[in-house]
Design a protein that fits this description.
Order of helices and strands: EHEEHE
GO cellular component, one term: cytoplasm
Subcellular location: Cytoplasm
Pfam family, one: HMA
Domain HMA: 2-68
Helix content: 25-40%
Number of domains: 1
CATH architecture: 2-Layer Sandwich
Main location: cytoplasm
Largest sheet: 4 strands, antiparallel
CATH class: Alpha Beta
Length: 68
Amino acid sequence: MEKLTLDIKGMTCDHCKAAVTGALEELNGVASVEVKLDKGTADVTYDEAKVSVDQMKETVEDQGYDVN
Protein backbone atom coordinates (compact mmCIF):
# COMPACT_ATOMS: atom_id res chain seq x y z
CA MET A 1 0.00 0.00 0.00
CA GLU A 2 1.10 3.52 -0.82
CA LYS A 3 0.33 6.74 1.04
CA LEU A 4 -0.34 10.12 -0.52
CA THR A 5 -1.41 13.54 0.72
CA LEU A 6 -3.59 15.52 -1.67
CA ASP A 7 -3.72 19.31 -1.25
CA ILE A 8 -7.34 20.32 -1.82
CA LYS A 9 -8.60 23.88 -2.20
CA GLY A 10 -12.18 24.89 -1.45
CA MET A 11 -13.15 22.61 1.42
CA THR A 12 -14.83 24.67 4.14
CA CYS A 13 -17.23 22.44 6.10
CA ASP A 14 -18.18 18.94 7.19
CA HIS A 15 -20.24 18.47 4.01
CA CYS A 16 -17.08 19.14 1.97
CA LYS A 17 -15.16 16.65 4.09
CA ALA A 18 -17.86 14.00 3.65
CA ALA A 19 -18.10 14.57 -0.12
CA VAL A 20 -14.35 14.18 -0.65
CA THR A 21 -14.05 11.23 1.73
CA GLY A 22 -17.00 9.39 0.18
CA ALA A 23 -15.89 9.96 -3.40
CA LEU A 24 -12.35 8.72 -2.74
CA GLU A 25 -13.50 5.71 -0.70
CA GLU A 26 -15.67 4.58 -3.64
CA LEU A 27 -12.60 4.16 -5.85
CA ASN A 28 -11.41 0.58 -6.24
CA GLY A 29 -7.98 0.38 -4.61
CA VAL A 30 -8.45 3.12 -1.99
CA ALA A 31 -8.03 1.57 1.46
CA SER A 32 -8.52 4.64 3.68
CA VAL A 33 -9.05 8.39 3.54
CA GLU A 34 -8.51 11.01 6.25
CA VAL A 35 -9.58 14.53 5.30
CA LYS A 36 -8.24 17.41 7.40
CA LEU A 37 -10.30 20.55 6.86
CA ASP A 38 -7.93 22.78 8.85
CA LYS A 39 -5.02 21.84 6.59
CA GLY A 40 -6.98 21.40 3.36
CA THR A 41 -5.57 17.93 2.81
CA ALA A 42 -6.64 14.35 2.30
CA ASP A 43 -4.33 11.54 3.40
CA VAL A 44 -5.03 8.53 1.20
CA THR A 45 -3.79 4.96 1.58
CA TYR A 46 -4.17 3.10 -1.70
CA ASP A 47 -3.04 0.23 -3.91
CA GLU A 48 -1.17 1.76 -6.84
CA ALA A 49 -1.87 -1.33 -8.94
CA LYS A 50 -5.62 -0.57 -8.78
CA VAL A 51 -5.91 3.22 -8.73
CA SER A 52 -3.73 6.08 -10.00
CA VAL A 53 -3.02 9.46 -8.46
CA ASP A 54 -4.62 11.07 -11.53
CA GLN A 55 -7.82 9.08 -10.93
CA MET A 56 -7.94 10.27 -7.32
CA LYS A 57 -7.34 13.90 -8.32
CA GLU A 58 -10.03 13.71 -11.02
CA THR A 59 -12.49 12.23 -8.52
CA VAL A 60 -11.93 15.12 -6.10
CA GLU A 61 -12.17 17.67 -8.92
CA ASP A 62 -15.49 16.09 -9.99
CA GLN A 63 -16.78 17.00 -6.51
CA GLY A 64 -16.00 20.67 -7.24
CA TYR A 65 -12.63 21.15 -5.55
CA ASP A 66 -9.18 22.06 -6.85
CA VAL A 67 -6.34 19.59 -6.24
CA ASN A 68 -2.60 20.28 -6.32
